[in-house]
Amino acid sequence: MGDDKAARLPQAGGAPLEARCPGRTHPVVRPGPGSLAAGPGAGPLDVVLYDTTLRDGTQRAGIHLTLADKLRLARRLDDFGVPYIEGGWPGSNPKDAAFFRALEDQPLRRSRLVAFTSTRRPGVAVQHDPVLAAALAAGTPAVCVVGKAWDRHVTVALGTRLEENLAMIRETVAYFVARGREVIFDAEHFFDGFAANPEYALAVLAAAEEAGASWLVLCDTNGGSLPDAVTRAVQAAAAATRTPLGIHCHDDAGLAVANSLAAVAAGCRMVQGTVNGYGERCGNANLLTVAANLELKLGLRCLPAGALVELTAVSRYASEVANLPHREEAPYVGANAFAHKAGIHVSALLKEPALYEHVDPARVGNDRRVLVSELSGRANLRYVLGAELDEPALARLLERIKELEHGGYQFEGAEGTLALLAWEVQQAAGGATGTPGGQAAFPEAPVPEAADPGWPFVLESYRVTALHDPAAGSRVEATIKVRVGERVVHTAAEGNGPVNALDAALRKALSEVYPDLEQVRLVDYKVRVLEGDAGTGARVRVLVESTDGRARWGTVGVSTNILEASWQALADGLRYYLLGLAAAPAPGGPDPGPEARPSVPAPPGAAARQATQATQVRQARQA
């Protein structure tokens, strides 16, 4: 391979490819049409990524991409720098044909677009096969041709002779090569075929190679192969062919990424996969996980310079386009990939992140998260809250958190409620002047309430009534009485449900004193039943997410009464904002500045409530 990087590539038996197979053409991939270079002036790639999300990925249950969705995702992958993007099967459905037509006028900037197709049908000449004609009409610079490499598939699934299958492969590949297309040949079921009849599986590769295929991709279509078997089969293919090899793995045994890496170590220079591992049954090899491992673990370049930091953003973008929840546990890119919960872990993490993180999350565009729960220690609280609470205050806060979690609360995703608990402890410990050391728990909080103890509002009572008329439908009204400073506000509002009515009544009651609350809106509302066997009398946990257009925060409530749990979460969401905690500087981060802070006036008579603040705190938490 010639360069230092190539000398470090893991090879079967410890020898480089040229030493094992003199004269072979398995080079480090050079730039060509479609810009396969790692970036301007950056040189060639060591491993080429081939994305098949737009075809194989859409075979996942629950994914239904529109034409617009496919175009959006193709553009994003093009910007990301994936060398090959397989757009679909133009001979199989009108949507894929329309996709290729749409990209004829506005082609991809960096990636090489690929049309997928099968070999000609048994007994049909290539020039008379409409499926091949459709792939040719797509006008792509490259075509991926799939052919059977397992003899049993040939005789049972195709219902034809083994010799005819070889002719189908040879003639189809030659058909596209003669018309100026780069051909990537996918040897379907190669590993099962190699295990059953290695001579025939290798004959399939030879047929495609003789016809002029540019790549021979070995497919673990059933996804059941183990890494050792993959290694042995790739080594045999490398010894029998001269054309660059690729790997295409499915995840039915949970080994798609491991098998892809084993194949690279054995000599493959192309890896096919999908974003987030989308695909039929258990999915395909997650191309993002493969890319991170190639670059960060093996030192092999597979992306343009600087692209790796976009990994998390690309993953989340694909989830949004596919309208699927983002996998929180996904390696490298998931929300929990660098999340730490155990107190002993966080304590060590604060001393040296590498003690519990295999890579810096920033290298893949992700963030470190430290969670607070009954498993946490004081280090978790210090990291999350960034508050200068003394040790006794931290101990009280931790004990309170453990009590609440025992009762069904959960503070992962409820940072607003957690901050209010810390604020409560800080106020009780330090009074109006903050902590005993004089340092406010939330420095420069813009709301006077944060320096003068007392909640922005305290509930006196609420009543919710629902009337159902079969002719007129349902009508819900909430009446609420809250104390804001020395003033008691009593008002009512209607809503399309009891929680919506209560939320509307609370906002109406507070709007005159706190007009800035108009900026705060609810963006998510989730209910979880904690004890399903208790039926309709079970405790529920309500988690709401709020935003002021700048920041987002979650709050939580728990009760056997879903309305009461909702009230707790809704009220804490507004208190968090009114106390200025939404604009407090993040741990280790810059102050967002006065322009990011709400201009919320202190309620009248706040100072007069200082003596009874502890009682009000208990009332507010029990409300």
What's the gist of this structure?
This protein has 623 residues and is of the alpha/beta class. 37% of the residues lie in helices and 17% in strands.
Your description of this structure?
The protein is α/β, with parallel strands linked by helices and 623 residues long. It is 37% helix and 17% strand. It has helices at residues 4-8, 17-20, 67-80, 94-105, 130-137, 151-158, 162-178, 190-196, 198-210, 227-240, 256-266, 287-297, 311-322, 343-351, 378-385, 391-406, 415-430, 448-451, 498-510, 562-578, 613-622; strands spanning 48-51, 84-88, 112-118, 142-148, 182-188, 215-220, 245-249, 270-273, 339-340, 369-370, 458-469, 473-484, 487-495, 521-529, 540-547, 552-559. The strands form four sheets. It has an eight-stranded parallel barrel, surrounded by ten helices. The protein has a three-stranded antiparallel sheet with strand order 11-12-13. Strands 14-15-16 form a three-stranded antiparallel sheet. Strand 11 (458-469) and strand 12 form a beta hairpin. Helix 7 runs parallel beside helix 9. The longest helix is centred in the first third of the chain and has 17 residues, at 162-178. The protein is elongated and about 90 Å long. The relative contact order is 0.07. The model is unreliable at 1-42, 431-453 and 585-623 (pLDDT under 50).
